Amino acid sequence: MTRASDTDWGAGIRARSQALLSADDEAEALYREAIERLGRTRVRPQLARAHLVYGEWLRRGNRRADARRELLQAFEMFADMGMEAFSRRAQRELAATGEKVRMPAVERLHDLTNQERRSPGSHATD
Q: Global pTM?
């Protein structure tokens, strides 16, 4: 299916999928290709997933510094998009490399008290 689209998105998804199934000596080039191709698209969640799985692969190969770079990129992208489950997954992987990151504080309407919802500075009722 990805071959039929002949786009960076299709080629990036294909490269990422092949990397997940490849032997270690082939996987790295495929992960990098996936990131490069998906980076030329506007499909940010797929690019973030490519950084995540590449970072996980690097961590399993005991390449902690390289893994941190990819995992931090994934973590920040997922956090910015509000994809909390993937953010937490990247956070756990970062912790496994010795890196400590905290989830950004996101103010949500359901987390506010009634008083906070009515305060003049709140845009919750706008």
A: 0.78
